[in-house]
Write a structure and sequence with these properties.
It contains 8 helices and no strands.
């Protein structure tokens, strides 16, 4: 009898989070098909965890972003190994595929939103994910801490430092009131 409850819970989580997980993957791999594959893998792992282990997921959004982040890291590791092998045989092969401008444009963000997403990707590695998860995906500091495997305080510090860094990158750090 637990199966229908698990299936219903899974369906609810999928309905609420599928777009955010896809977007998270897409902005990191710049390939729609690969992002779809990664998102599918994330939800497959969620299903396996819920179904096989039979445990309730307290913070499903943070759990999904943790799985997505790890899946993306694994994908880049595999891709890097293949690319290095290909480089030995082909000097024209690039060692990695950076996030392209078209990936950001295809995410249907307009004007300042697209500009800020682009600038978030320029933040230092420690702050980039924290700021993205907070302001683009709307995760709370405790959820971000869980995703990044850091303390809640460290997540808040990274968010604040990321905001300061973002203000400098975007030139929004200019004091309007003359010096406070």
């Amino acid at each position: 009898m637990a199966k229908p409850d698990i299936q219903g819970t899974f369906t609810d989580i999928y309905t609420k989070e599928a777009d955010a997980i896809f977007r998270f993957c897409y902005l990191r791999v710049s390939d729609r098909e690969q992002a779809l594959d990664l998102a599918q893998e994330v939800f497959t792992r969620l299903w396996q965890t819920m179904n096989q282990e039979g445990r309730a997921i307290e913070h499903p959004r943070a759990f999904l972003f943790t799985i997505a982040r790890n899946a993306i890291i694994d994908w880049y590791r595999k891709k890097k190994a293949v690319s290095l092998e290909a480089m030995e045989n082909d000097d024209t092969q690039e060692p990695y595929e950076p996030i392209s401008d078209s990936a950001i444009a295809d995410s249907k963000l307009e004007g300042e939103g697209r500009f800020l997403i682009d600038k978030i990707s320029d933040l230092s590695p420690g702050n980039k994910d924290a700021v993205y998860l907070r302001f683009v995906e709307g995760l709370s500091p405790p959820e971000i801490a869980e995703v990044l495997k850091i303390s809640t305080n460290a997540a808040s510090v990274r968010i604040n430092r990321g905001i300061q860094e973002l203000r400098k990158l975007t030139r929004y750090d200019i004091e309007e009131d003359g010096g406070q």
